[in-house]
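Feature request disguised as a bug report, sorry. It would help if multi-protein outputs had a clear separator. Right now it looks like this:
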Amino acid sequence: MKKLILILMIGIFGISYSQKVPAVVKTEFSKEALQQKLEDEEGKTITIQQILDQHKGKVLVIDFWAGWCRDCLNALPKAKELEEHNKNIDFVFLSLDRSKEGFEKSLERFDMKNKENYWFASGWKNDFNNYVDLNWIPRYMVIDQKSSIAKYYSISPEDPELQQTIDQILK
């Protein structure tokens, strides 16, 4: 009986805290989301708008991740394959590590130093993450050449819709 109650409690807890596909799929960013500040590896501040402006005219994949996230780390090999398969598009990595030191250690430990990395110094809850309904990592978004959201929600680099969206935009 105790085992049954324990299993039931674990199941209820797991369901209540698992990822949930957002009810509304957004195709544009709000002004507040675009003004969200992040830090690069040198500690310089940059906004989401500035990042998008740097990639305007290109297809961009945004990869939300953290060094403490087991699912993110398990996805890294497939994320690397996605990147290698799509050399003609840009990738940006947004870290949700809990500290600047954690961010720096994660970049080193997981061989991410040669990529375009930014860190949410403000933490998980901020205008950008709230706007995009960030409730799980890893999370992948595809941004088109005009900085519109082409693929809003994907939690795996192996999601076939991710590659399909990239291919469709590049046509």
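(second protein starts here, but nothing in the output says so)
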Amino acid sequence: MTVTDRSHELINTAAQAAADKLAHDIVAYDVSDVLSITDAFLLASAPNDRQVKAIVDEIEERLSKELGTKPVRREGDREARWVLLDYVDIVVHVQHSEERVFYALERLWKDCPELELPEEAKATRGKAEEHAKLRAAEEAAELDGDWR
């Protein structure tokens, strides 16, 4: 099996929506050969719960407005640490950066082909790591200031 044109359209629209809301490390995998329930997974992350929710809301709104589709399932909303949007053809995972590192979904799907994404989505690669380094430097500076 291969990813359908419809699935590509959904993935690209969702990836663009996530990038527009400053998601980190957006990646999509063609899982059609290993799963019969969906064609593709889109993964994205954010450094805080509020941003996870904003990304999820934007993806849902954009897919509804532009492609006339709504998720058949939305899970993980209350905590906003890992929200899953199931559109049958694709499944979107938006995770808090800590969950993304802990669960490492990329390791599970590393043998699946990566799907081409819009430039803005590809430009988000490595953003979580940059953000983590910046936060560590800020925290170190705060601690350093406390000692003086």
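Even a blank line would do. Unrelated, but nice: Residues 127-147 form the longest helix (21 residues).
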